[in-house]
Amino acid sequence: MAPVKLYYYFRSPPSRAVLLLIHYLEIEFEKIDIDLFAGEHLEESFLKVNPKHQVPVLDDNGFILTESKAILCYLANSRISGSTLYPLNPKKRALIDEQLNYDSGTLFQRLIAAMQDVVFGEATEVPENAKTKIFDSLNYLNDLLSKRNFVAGDDLSIADFAVIATISALFFMGVNIEDYPEIQRWYEQCKELPGFDENEDGAKALADVINEKVEGDTAF
């Protein structure tokens, strides 16, 4: 079979989550960069791939998925079905799904909310209410990780790939990781993932977009 195709943007946390899993699973792939800031996601050629004009997109020999969490689930199910990354046990899987949904519905949305007024508006600092929600999310995650090794249990799962891609951007935006010792422990574990340096490069590039526009050195 031909390599899978990953339509990807290096600043995008959902894109980086999928890329981390692809590296971890040692899947042969072709990476196709789609520059969101340059508007390449709105070009006709890409809209034929994903009319929702979003990344990431996975094309597995004609089977196309356009949502990052669905891609993570599919890759785990199709390559190592039943593994601890996404086990068949319904309760263990539900805990992973819970954290996948938390990342997409809460954590990632709060990251976007913290950035939007600065990146797309005239603000020169992150709104206090946006910071408060970010810190609330980090306190929740730190407490969660005080009870387990990884975000959905004691084993590495696809939820860790999703959450670490979002969290890494926050630390480059100036959030002090030392304020969250359990997250710091988990983050150090995740640094062992193949391709983690590339994830951090993308996280820093995303953070730079907002850090360059705020008063002071960093957004937080």
Indicate the low-confidence ranges by residue numbers. none
Order of helices and strands: EHEHEEHHHHHH
Would you count the extended β strands for me? 4
Instruction: List the total number of helices.
Output: 8
Radius of gyration: 17 Å
Determine the mean pLDDT. 97
The N- and C-terminal alpha carbons lie at a distance of 46 Å
The largest pleated sheet is described as:
4 strands, mixed
How would you sum up the global shape?
globular
Strand content: 5-15%
How are the strands of the biggest sheet laid out side by side?
A: 2-1-3-4
- Range of helix content: 40-55%
Structural class: alpha+beta
Describe it for me?
Helix 6 (158-172) runs parallel beside helix 8 (196-211). The mean pLDDT is 97. Helix content is 54%, strand content 8%. With 220 residues, the protein is of the alpha+beta class. It has eight helices and four strands; from the N terminus they run E-H-E-H-E-E-H-H-H-H-H-H. The protein is globular. A four-stranded mixed β-sheet has the order 2-1-3-4. The protein starts with a strand and ends in a 9-residue tail after the last helix.
Keyphrases for this structure?
alpha+beta; 54% helix; 220 residues; four-stranded mixed beta sheet
Short summary:
Helices cover 54% and strands 8% of the residues. The protein has 220 residues and is of the alpha+beta class. The protein has a four-stranded mixed sheet with strand order 2-1-3-4.
